[in-house]
């Protein structure tokens, strides 16, 4: 059960490392690998953004709490927010009346002052939808299966992507990925001559990753 | 197991049918486009503006499966097929007929392989009710799409009874 090849893509979508360990996939030209890296980088971002959104049942109560802030701009925005939802019991006239009930003003002010929510939050507090697994952050493509190979993608916190092409029957790809990442951290990132975001040319990394991945062939 | 959505694309990249089982609200208010000063990581981690319609979603999904299919063909050879991919939140299943009609289904991450299910939708529902229907157009230029009550009913039944 071999590991066919390893590709490392930097955070800008450029190919920084490509090596084949076992024959099995077709050989591409260097230019094709560069195109593939860029394409995958784009597709990875799109797969993240087409995550299904599930309507949030609590959305109405959240929007009604924001309507009670007295500033006119927020009431207009909140009225606009409340009007499309047909289940809302609030009429536009009731939003302009300042109600004396204690309101969670810190929450509403932060939601109005910040221009947009941080992109990584999986549960937007004022949104009318939620994601299938709300407590898990959104991610792009993680594994792809075809008839002949499995592609596993691991994205580091800094945005570097590791692509491992393996046999479909292969088990424990996460463990292999972790070791490859450790080798990268040890031999590439700790190499004082390595320039960030540039192609990886480190002999020690070649030896380490070659010895480790060829042994599984 | 939950099915989120289902799409059919014809050989001209036209979305001829789409159906969602957990509909998105018609408009998402109170959300603004991410401005330039929003902290974004440079690797595309920033979310798209959420005011996207279902049509745009279908186009994005087509672009994704088209790119991935071409990538798989390039690496695995012409007889290789793209089957499925998974993210942390959902799973996308893909089936392409020899006539290049593409069936795409989005489900939750725990679902088993839906290749057989998509094949059954093609053979038992699409061919029976759409292809064999003499009134149904062979091509869908400009996008009326599959507008067939029998097909939609039986698809609904298939997804709600067989798959969940």
Automatic annotation (TrEMBL), chain A:
* Keyword Transcription regulation attached: no
Main localization (coarse): endoplasmic reticulum
As for subcellular location, the record says: Endoplasmic reticulum; Golgi apparatus, cis-Golgi network; Golgi apparatus
What is the top-level taxon of the source organism?
Answer: Eukaryota
Annotated region Disordered: the residues are: 78-128
Q: State where composition is biased (Low complexity).
A: 78-98, 106-128
Task: Give the UniProt keywords, A-Z.
Answer: Endoplasmic reticulum, ER-Golgi transport, Golgi apparatus, Transport
Q: Which InterPro entries match?
A: Longin-like_dom_sf (IPR011012), TRAPPC (IPR007233)
Q: Which Gene3D superfamilies match?
A: 3.30.450.70
Quaternary structure and partners: Part of the multisubunit transport protein particle (TRAPP) complex.
Family the UniProt entry places it in: Belongs to the TRAPP small subunits family. TRAPPC4 subfamily.
Name this protein carries in UniProt: Trafficking protein particle complex subunit
**Which species is this record about?**
Aspergillus cavernicola
Q: What is the lineage of its organism?
A: Eukaryota, Fungi, Dikarya, Ascomycota, Pezizomycotina
TrEMBL record, chain B:
Q: What is this protein called?
A: Trafficking protein particle complex subunit
Q: What is its main location?
A: endoplasmic reticulum
The places in or outside the cell where this protein is found are:
Endoplasmic reticulum; Golgi apparatus, cis-Golgi network
Q: Which InterPro entries match?
A: Longin-like_dom_sf (IPR011012), TRAPPC (IPR007233)
Classify the source by domain of life.
Eukaryota
Question: What family is this?
Answer: Belongs to the TRAPP small subunits family. BET5 subfamily.
Q: Where are its TM segments located?
A: none
Which Pfam families does the record associate with it?
Sybindin (PF04099)
Subunit comment for this entry? Part of the multisubunit transport protein particle (TRAPP) complex.
Q: Where is this region: Disordered?
A: 29-49
> What PANTHER family is this protein classified in?
TRAFFICKING PROTEIN PARTICLE COMPLEX SUBUNIT (PTHR23249), TRAFFICKING PROTEIN PARTICLE COMPLEX SUBUNIT 1 (PTHR23249:SF16)
Q: Which UniProt keywords apply?
A: Endoplasmic reticulum, ER-Golgi transport, Golgi apparatus, Transport
């Amino acid at each position: 059960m071999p590991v066919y090849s390893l590709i490392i893509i930097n955070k800008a979508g450029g190919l920084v490392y490509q090596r084949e360990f076992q024959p099995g996939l077709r050989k591409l030209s260097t230019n094709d690998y560069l195109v593939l890296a860029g394409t995958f980088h784009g597709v990875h971002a799109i797969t993240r953004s087409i995550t299904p959104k599930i309507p949030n049942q609590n959305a109405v109560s959240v929007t009604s709490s924001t309507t009670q802030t007295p500033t006119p701009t927020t009431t207009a925005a909140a009225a606009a927010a409340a009007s499309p939802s047909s289940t809302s019991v609030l009429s536009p006239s009731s939003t302009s009346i300042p109600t004396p009930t204690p309101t969670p003003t810190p929450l509403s002010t932060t939601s109005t002052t910040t221009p947009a929510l941080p992109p990584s939050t999986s549960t937007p507090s004022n949104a009318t939808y939620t994601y299938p697994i709300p407590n898990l952050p959104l991610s792009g493509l993680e594994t792809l299966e075809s008839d002949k190979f499995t592609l596993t993608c691991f994205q580091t916190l800094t945005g570097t992507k590791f692509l491992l092409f393996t046999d479909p029957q292969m088990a424990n790809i996460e463990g292999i990925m972790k070791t490859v990442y450790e080798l990268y951290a040890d031999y590439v990132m700790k190499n004082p001559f390595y320039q960030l975001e540039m192609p990886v040319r480190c002999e020690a990394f070649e030896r380490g990753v070659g010895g480790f991945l060829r042994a599984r062939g | 197991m939950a099915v989120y959505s289902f799409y059919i694309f014809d050989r001209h990249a036209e979305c001829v049918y789409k159906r969602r089982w957990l509909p998105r609200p018609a408009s998402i208010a109170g959300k603004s486009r991410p401005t330039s000063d929003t902290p974004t990581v440079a690797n595309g981690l920033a979310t798209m503006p959420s005011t996207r319609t279902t049509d745009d979603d279908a186009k994005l999904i087509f672009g994704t499966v088209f790119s991935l299919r071409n990538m798989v063909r390039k690496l695995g050879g012409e007889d290789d097929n793209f089957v499925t991919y998974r993210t942390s939140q959902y799973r996308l299943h893909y089936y392409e007929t020899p006539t290049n009609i593409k069936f795409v289904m989005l489900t939750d991450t725990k679902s088993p392989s839906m290749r057989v299910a998509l094949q059954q939708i093609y053979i038992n529902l699409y061919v029976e009710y759409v292809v064999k229907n003499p009134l149904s157009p062979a091509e869908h230029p400009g996008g009326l799409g599959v507008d067939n009550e029998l097909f939609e009913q039986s698809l609904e039944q298939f997804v709600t009874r067989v798959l969940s």
